[in-house]
């Protein structure tokens, strides 16, 4: 969101996980708490409202800070100055290379130049820019639900996924070496890496890292369950799901179904290799819904492309600077499984323990 990440993690994510997610999980595993009267009598409703107020108060402070910052920038822009009181350059020279490379069809170079000439903006900054240009302005009450959704859906899940990916890489040195070799081929290795941030073209070229991310999401989907409401009667084997019923789909169970995956409990990134001659020996039956870490259908996750880019960026940046080695506590998939806690999001009971040392 453009604010200090440590402050955000401490005040935002932990607050959500500790209060809102735990209360939601409680009502799932104890369905009698779905009764509003009982939920209130047992004191859970009061806890939920307190957590909601704390969360909204945090988000409102963030919105107020960013709105003030945005208004100051717009005022400076109107004066023809940037935020550092420097005169704003025209776009002609900045976009000259973009036009040339676009016309020449050099897509990767075009992506790189476009990336370098574009200042990264947070979701909230984009939202405030759109709001500034609109006639019908958004109120803070309208912005709050959008940011709350972002907090729940995007940040907690990718944080869980990143830690699990790093843990599995530390446990499987042969896979870690392949990922490291791929990253070195992009950035030049420890001796040549100048520490530049990855570009969209760099991230697009990390094919094996993408296989690792997908295989991690297969074994440990950050959102292991989803809920749907049945619109019409659905025959299901010897049973019938009545119209209007609410159902819970266990993504984690689908991802480990031996009818679709060969050795489903093993960590094998090659399952997702783009070359079918490589992947086919690890897949028993290809089905469009056998792998759904972002759910599927019209209500699937709208942030899946963002999530993939974010995970590639974080993992590649860490591996460019650090060596990883496993903790004695985590030697096999079974060691991870017995420490997994399935809330609304998947997480380690005591965190993912990894040893690291900085590369020279």
Automatic annotation (TrEMBL):
Entry keywords, A to Z: Endoplasmic reticulum, Heme, Iron, Membrane, Metal-binding, Microsome, Monooxygenase, Oxidoreductase
Listed InterPro entries: Cyt_P450 (IPR001128), Cyt_P450_CS (IPR017972), Cyt_P450_E_grp-I (IPR002401), Cyt_P450_sf (IPR036396), Cytochrome_P450_Monoox (IPR050196)
Cited PROSITE patterns: CYTOCHROME_P450
Broad class of the protein's primary localization: endoplasmic reticulum
Region listing for Disordered, in residue ranges: 75-100
Membrane spanning residue stretches: none
MF GO annotations: heme binding; iron ion binding; monooxygenase activity; oxidoreductase activity, acting on paired donors, with incorporation or reduction of molecular oxygen
SUPFAM superfamilies named among the record's database cross-references: Cytochrome P450
Record localization: Endoplasmic reticulum membrane; Microsome membrane
Binding site for heme: 301
Bilayer topology term: Peripheral membrane protein
Organism: Diaphorina citri
Family affiliation: Belongs to the cytochrome P450 family.
One protein family per Pfam: p450
Requisite cofactors: heme
Top-level lineage group: Eukaryota
CC per GO annotation: endoplasmic reticulum membrane
Family annotation (Gene3D superfamilies): Cytochrome P450
Protein name: Cytochrome P450 4C1-like
């Amino acid at each position: 969101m453009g604010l200090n990440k440590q402050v955000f993690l401490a005040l935002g994510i932990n607050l959500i996980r500790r209060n809102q997610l735990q209360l939601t999980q409680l009502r799932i595993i104890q369905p009698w708490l779905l009764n509003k009267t009982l939920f209130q009598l047992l004191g859970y409703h009061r806890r939920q409202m307190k957590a909601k107020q704390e969360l909204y108060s945090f988000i409102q402070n963030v919105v107020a800070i960013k709105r003030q910052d945005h208004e100051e920038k717009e005022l400076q822009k109107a004066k023809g100055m940037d935020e550092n009181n420097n005169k704003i350059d025209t776009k002609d020279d900045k976009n000259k290379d973009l036009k040339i490379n676009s016309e020449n069809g050099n897509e990767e170079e075009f992506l790189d130049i476009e990336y370098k000439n574009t200042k990264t903006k947070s979701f909230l900054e984009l939202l405030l820019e759109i709001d500034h240009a609109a006639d019908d302005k958004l109120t803070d009450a309208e912005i709050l639900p959008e940011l709350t959704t972002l907090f729940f859906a995007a940040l907690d899940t990718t944080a869980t996924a990143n830690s699990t990916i790093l843990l599995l890489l530390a446990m499987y040195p042969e896979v870690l070496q392949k990922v490291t070799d791929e990253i070195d081929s992009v950035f030049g290795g420890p001796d040549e890496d100048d520490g530049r941030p990855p570009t969209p073209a760099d991230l697009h070229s990390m094919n094996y890292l993408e296989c690792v991310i997908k295989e991690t999401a297969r074994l440990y989907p950050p959102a292991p369950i989803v809920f749907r409401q049945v619109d019409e009667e659905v025959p299901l084997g010897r049973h019938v799901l009545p119209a209007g019923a609410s159902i819970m789909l266990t993504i984690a169970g689908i991802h480990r179904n031996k009818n679709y995956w060969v050795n489903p409990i093993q960590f094998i990134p090659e399952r997702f290799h783009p070359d079918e001659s490589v992947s086919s020996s690890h897949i028993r039956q290809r089905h469009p819904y056998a792998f759904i870490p972002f759910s599927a259908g019209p209500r699937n996750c709208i942030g899946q492309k963002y999530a993939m880019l974010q995970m590639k960026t974080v993992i590649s940046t860490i591996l460019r600077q650090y060596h990883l080695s496993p903790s004695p506590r985590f030697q096999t998939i079974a060691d991870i499984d017995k420490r997994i806690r399935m809330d609304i999001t998947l997480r380690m009971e005591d965190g993912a323990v990894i040893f690291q040392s900085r590369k020279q």
